[in-house]
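Database export, one record per block. Field names are fixed; values are copied verbatim from the stored entry.
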Amino acid sequence: MRDDNSRAQPGKADAKKVETGEEMQTRVLTDYIKNLYDKYMSENPDVDISLSTFQRLRPKNILLTSFISRNTCQCMHHQNMALIVQALRKVWNQNRTKPRESYPKSARFR
């Protein structure tokens, strides 16, 4: 699989056993399979293959774009943002039940 069509998932647990019994790193397609099929057909005009066969021959360790893992980046920048959003949601949920008059005048919307 070419690097311009898919990307490898970084996690150690992101591996899948293929038909040969070998464990291979999973990859995620960077585009929809229909677009990749069109790209393949333009690069290989002498090959006669249908879209359904192209889809069926996709290796099992290659995941479709719509099934991308929900794992997110664990770097400090993104984790700090996740914690900020979590705190804002908590404050929002607590303050939704309070009447508008209980807010300080400086925090009220005009």
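Remark 1: The mean pLDDT is 78.
Remark 2: The first strand starts at residue 6 and ends at 8.
End of record.
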